[in-house]
Amino acid sequence: GCVFKAMHLLDRHSYAVKKIGLNSNVEPIEQTLGEVRKMAKLHHPGIVRYHSTWIEEPPEGWQYRFTPSMEGADQIVHNSGPERNNAFLFIQMEV
Q: Is 58 within 8 Å of 87 (Cβ atoms)?
């Protein structure tokens, strides 16, 4: 996954958020959630502190983008990028 810095809208604190693509394969999802559960239990000065986890499903059609065609009408082009997943797991940690 990728990690980005984000500011929480309510507490105005900056966090590192890791975005992990999930597909319909149940075993890797359970393995990832098991790792998250272990991180939630860790409290050590040498380990980045865990805050929260959530799963989001992208809206329908999110893998498509519109491009102008030669005739002036829009075309729908399938996005064949790396994020062709059914859902995303987000892990919020301290910066």
A: yes
